[in-house]
Amino acid sequence: MKPLRSIRLRLLAGGALAIAAALLVSWFTLVLLFDSHIRRNSEDDLIRHGRDIVSAISFTAGGLSTETYQPTDLRFDRPASGLYWQVSRAGGVHRSRSLWDNALDIPPDVDGADWRRDTAAGPFGQDLVRVARTIRETEISAPVTLIIAADRASLINAREEFARELAIFLTLLWATLSLAAWFQVTIGLLPLRAVQSSISELKSSPVSRLDAARFATEVTPLVDQINELADAREADVHAARDRAANLAHGLKTPLSALRAIARRVHDAGQADMADGLEQSIRAASDAVDRELARARTAASLDRGPTAPGPLIERLVAVLSRTERGGGCSSR
C-alpha cells in the first residue's frame, strides 16, 4: 500500500480518525454514565419503597405483620409485574402479591447500617436490581431482612435506546466536525498555495526572489530556503556562462592562427588540404561565435525585461539609411 503523498489527505484522514476515536470513547463513556445514573435512580426508588414498608411493619407476640402497608405502586399487587418486596424472618416470610408463590434470594452480608445494592437472578426468568437491609425490633431481637427488587429489563431497554440515539447524534457530529476540519485544512494550506504561485515568478525572471514578508511565519523557513536555492542556481549559471565565454575567447586566438596556417598551406600549392582545414576552422569559429552571442544575450536578460519599442525604432532608423531600407520606406 502506497503512503499518502498529499498533505491535505493526511491531515483530513488523521483529523477524521482522531475525531471518530474521541467520539467513540465519548459514546462508551456516556452510555456507561447513563446506565449508572438510571440504575442509581431505580435503586433510590426501591429504597423509598423500602422505607415505607419499614414504617408499616409492626412486631407482635407471634412475629410481625405488614398488613398496614398500602403500596403506592400498583405493580406490587400484579403477579410477575417486575416490582417485588419481601420481608423474611426466622420462621416466616411476608411478600408482595407480585411474587405470587416465589421467594427472593437473601443476599449475603446484609446489615442494618446501610442498604445493600446489587443485582441477582429473580423469579419468572427476570434479572433484578435489588436493595436489602436488616431491621430489628430491639438490639437483642432476631433480625428481619427486607428486600425490594425490580426487573432490570426496563433499565436495559432505556440504556439501549439511549445508546442508539446517542450514536446517531455523534455520527452527525462526526460529519460536522470532519467538514469543519476540511475547512480548517483548506485555510491552513493557503500559504503554501501562495508560495506555489510565487515560485512561478522565478521561472520568468531569474533575478526575482520571494518576499518573506508576504507569507505566514510558518512558511518563512521554506521561503528562505527557496531564495537560497535560487541564489545558488544563479551563481552556478553565471559561473558556467563565464567559463563558456572565457573558453570561447580563448579559442579565437588559436583559430586565427590556424587560419594563417591554412593560407600558407594554400599558398604552398596544397589547395585541397587548405580548403578542408579552412572549413573545419570556419565550423569551429561559428560555434565559438554562437556561444559568445548566447553569453551576451543571457547577460542582457539578467538585467531584467527591456521595453521593445525604443529598440525597434532604432533598428528601423538604421535600416532606413541602407539602400534597400530606403527603397522600402519610399514605397
Description of the molecule:
Helix 1 runs antiparallel to helix 2 (153-188) and helix 4 (220-267) packs antiparallel against helix 5. The two termini are 74 Å apart. A hairpin with a 2-residue loop joins strand 1 and strand 2. This protein has 2 domains: 7-172, no CATH class; 212-305. The protein is an alpha+beta fold. The protein contains 7 helices and 7 strands; from the N terminus they run H-E-E-E-E-E-E-E-H-H-H-H-H-H. Helices cover 61% and strands 12% of the residues. It has helices at 7-56, 153-188, 190-204, 220-267, 271-302, 308-320, 323-330, and strands spanning 58-60, 63-65, 83-89, 92-95, 116-121, 127-135, 144-151. The longest helix is centred in the first third of the chain and has 50 residues, at 7-56.
Domain tally:
2
The side-by-side strand order for the widest beta sheet comes to 4-3-7-6-5
Low-confidence stretches: none
Strand content: 5-15%
Q: How helical, in percent, are the residues? A: 55-70%
Distance between the termini: 74 Å
Estimate the mean pLDDT confidence.
80
Structural class based on helices, strands and sheet pairing: alpha+beta
Order of helices and strands: HEEEEEEEHHHHHH
Strand segment count: 7
Rg over C-alpha atoms, rounded to the nearest angstrom: 50 Å
Number of helices: 7
The rough form would be described as rod-shaped
Main beta sheet strand tally, sense and closure: 5 strands, antiparallel
